[in-house]
Amino acid sequence: MRGLTSDPGETSLVSFSSEVGPVVYPLRHALKPPIAARFSISWSRGNSLRVSGFQAEADDGEVVRGKVVEVKLGCGDSEIDHAQWRRIAYGSVSPFALLQSHKNSMAAVSKMSAVSSPYDAEWSDYVMEYSRDIGFLLGSHKLSLSVGIEDTKTVLKKVEEPTCLKAAWELMVIFYADHKSQAWIPEQLVDWLADYDSLLSGTQPTVHSKLVNFQKELASLQAIEDDDKYWEAISSALAVGWLDVAVKMLRLHGSYQLNQVGRREIENGLVEAVAVLISKMPHMRLELAPGKLGECFGTKPDFIKAWEKWRGQISKLDCSAFWVQCDHRQTREGLKNLLQIMLGNANILSSATCHWMELHVSYLLHIRPFTMGLESMNNLAQKCMQLKPVSFPHKLMTLLLGILGENTEVVLAECSRSFGPW
């Protein structure tokens, strides 16, 4: 709520907030007392209020004067300011009105029909259209994680920082709105983590922060394959399914340099073999985003067949005699570690990930790719929380736990607490 206070020669606008208390904005209007028989307040450009003050009519019949003053309000949290919140609130009205219009039209048709409503699929399309409109309103869909192509020494490209609000909205869409992709929720969580793992870096270490820190050292490394952090970074990227990053980093290996290929042929062959296996990892989904690696399978039988064949190729390479001929210790041990990740070694997955959400995704990818249903995913999440507890859980973690636990009250409470009534 907002109010006006007035003293002789001075008028102020007072903004009341239950969280931060009253904030006083002085209005410099140069009007002579008596002030303000009437004030008019409206939104102006950006994050400003337009306050129109009118001087009270004088007894001697003097013409009434007025003054229009713009007051720039303070911002909210560091992520989304008041102006952005206002834009979101107003911008979401039209998509919501359109969704309600579709709902009312379908209800009217359903009442006129003697048979059961055939409009479930149509309604799902309307909900997804609404979800996309709101998602676009919350910010452009730019990944916080992206492979650098232009510069061979760039693992991550610097792009627009995501927001927790957009991350929360996309979680809600995955589990509540996108019914046509329910069979591919594990893969959608992989994509979600790739987009928003950087948001979790403020409260705990993450794979994203590990890659960012390694990239800072990358330019100064002469023999990158001699550095243990290089292999740790690749292992972490592979564990959470960032295949393009893992392959990109593998091909920075020194054995790919033209002046070394001849004398490091065995070493280079093993690195390339692992890179190819990573790039051929099966995915149970209809399609991948441009630039993402892997092979897609839309049905469970096809996926199972491809998965078993792929795992067989990994096991065959793991038992190859070529490892004995690989003289470079770090390369031999690093590549073997990557094979164990793809074979689902739980201990190595735990070491390669930083918090329970990353571990949860790594299990869904490499150990339990056939996990279906919220109950199974929630049980797995609880196990991962025991293995990777966090001291200061992020609000997105609390939201995901509420969704997986099918606890609507927790989900609504967390959304209201973290993002307000909207």
Automatic annotation (TrEMBL):
Q: This protein is called what?
A: Uncharacterized protein
| Source organism | Rhododendron molle
